[in-house]
Amino acid sequence: MRTNTTATQRRTRKVVTPKPEKLGWEQYLQKNHRSLQQKMIELENLEMMSKHGPELWRQNNHRLEVFLSRMQRLAQEQNTGLSTGIVELS
User: InterPro entries, alphabetically (predicted)?
Assistant: First the structure.
């Protein structure tokens, strides 16, 4: 009696998916986290526009621009301080 071994083998075969490398997985997670953060910001903007109108949305954007400028200035000061420290060491 002849049996259909290929059909039996297909039913019992396990599908093994390769595990991603740790670095690749972390990059994948970081990319998706950034994407979710962006979507959250977009939703907040839409909610503000629908609740308070365009003026409040503009005020909030201005507040964020001021915050960004302050952070950029602080980063530049830190960078200058590091550069000065390196020059003094050499």
Answer: SPF27
Average pLDDT, the chain: 79
Residue with tokens 């590091």: 82
* Mean pLDDT computed over 15-21: 59
Dihedral of the CA atoms 55, 59, 65, 66 (nearest 10)? Answer: 160
* Length of the chain in terms of residues written: 90
Whether the Cβ atoms of residue 48 and residue 60 lie closer than 8 Å to each other: yes
- 42: its two tokens: 């977009």
Phi–psi pair at 77, nearest 5 degrees: -65, -40
Judge if 40 and 62 occupy the same domain: no
- 60 and 30, same domain (yes or no): no
Read off the pLDDT band of 1 (50, 70, 90): very low
Model pTM score: 0.42
